[in-house]
Amino acid sequence: MSQHVVIKQDVSPGGSQFVTVRIGPQLFGLPIEAVQEVFVPDHITHVPLCIPQIEGVLNLRGRIVTMVNMRRLLGLPDGGRASMAVGIEHKGESYGLIIDTMGEVMMLDNASREANPTNLDPQWAGLATGVHRLPSELLLVLDVELALARLTTDRAA
Fold it and tell me: How many CA atoms lie within 13 A of 118 on its CB side?
């Protein structure tokens, strides 16, 4: 049985809320309005002839969820067994973004968002809409729409 957490979507004016996740060494922020839930991905079924970024599918409370390996999508080496996933709805389909660890929900001022650094890997820059400087590291804002659109682009190639 999967454990899950439903995310509340309460945003105040002048700021944005982000669900923070770690993928490899990097901290990412997913806009809270894009996140439906967080769950432990149990029993992922491999789908033959799928692109490498698709880990497989699973049944989550009666819904078929396509599981996206975010490490592969970002060009990082595999990190082992999937331990956490973030549930996303995109164009009427359910997706689970496999992440390494779950962080906290952060409220960040929109004025503190900066453009992507020029030295950011182009593969990552194509998925990030900006960064926030935190006291100890950068938080890359992940554009979920672009990330999932890349899956169909990779499939067509």
Answer: 0
Kindly state the DSSP code that residue 94 receives in the 8-state scheme. Answer: E
> What is the domain-level CATH number for residue 120?
2.40.50.180
Total number of domains constituting the chain? 1
Structure tokens at 70: 């975010």
Q: What is the pLDDT of residues 24-65, one digit of tens each?
A: 999 999 999 999 999 999 899 999 999 999 999 999 999 999
Burial of 106-130, coded b for 16+ CB within 10 Å and e otherwise, reads bebeeeebeebeeeeeeebeebbbb
Cα distance between the two ends of the chain: 36
Q: Structural domain of residue 34, as residue ranges?
A: 4-156
Q: In what order do the strands lie in the sheet with 26-31?
A: 101-109, 15-23, 26-31, 138-142, 128-133, 113-114
Cα separation of 40 and 84, whole Å?
5
